[in-house]
TrEMBL record:
Name recorded for this polypeptide: Monovalent cation/H(+) antiporter subunit G
Family: Belongs to the CPA3 antiporters (TC 2.A.63) subunit G family.
Protein localization: Membrane
Entry-linked PANTHER family: ANTIPORTER SUBUNIT MNHG2-RELATED
Length: 132
C-alpha cells in the first residue's frame, strides 16, 4: 500500500514540475501579455497545486499528520492566482495594450468604444453644466 502512495506522490510532484516548467517556457515564448497571463495563471496554478497536493499526501502517509499550512497554501493559490491573472489582463486591456497580430480578434472593441463615447459625452455635459 505504501508503494502505491509513493508512486502517486512521485507522479503528482513530477507532473506539477513538468507543468510549471512548460508554463515558464510559455511566459518566455508567447507573443503578447494576454497569452502570457494565461500561461502564468492557468498552468502555473495547476503545477503548484499538484506539487502542494503531493507534499500534503506525503505528510499524511509518512508522518501521519494533516498539515494545515499546506491546506491553506493550496486554498490560497487556488483562489488568488487566477484572480490576479485576470486582473492583470483586464488592466492591460483597459490601458489599450495591443493584441497579438495573429488570428486574435477583439470582440469587445465595439462595445468599449461605445462606452468610451458615452463617457466622453457625459464629461462634456458635466463640464458644460459647471461652466453655467
Amino acid at each position: 500500500m505504501m508503494t502505491i502512495f509513493s508512486i502517486l506522490i512521485g507522479l503528482l510532484v513530477l507532473f506539477g514540475s513538468i507543468i510549471s516548467v512548460l508554463s515558464a517556457f510559455g511566459l518566455i515564448r508567447l507573443p503578447d501579455v494576454y497569452l502570457r497571463a494565461h500561461a502564468a495563471t492557468k498552468s502555473t496554478t495547476l503545477g503548484v497545486l499538484c506539487i502542494l497536493f503531493g507534499s500534503f499526501l506525503f505528510f499524511i502517509v509518512y508522518d501521519g499528520y494533516i498539515s494545515a499550512r499546506l491546506l491553506l497554501g493550496i486554498l490560497f493559490v487556488f483562489m488568488t492566482a487566477p484572480v490576479a491573472g485576470h486582473l492583470n489582463a483586464r488592466a492591460a486591456y483597459r490601458t489599450d495594450v495591443p493584441l497579438w497580430k495573429g488570428t486574435v480578434q477583439d470582440a469587445l472593441a465595439p462595445v468599449l468604444r461605445g462606452k468610451k463615447r458615452i463617457l466622453a459625452e457625459e464629461e462634456e455635459v458635466s463640464v458644460d453644466e459647471k461652466d453655467e
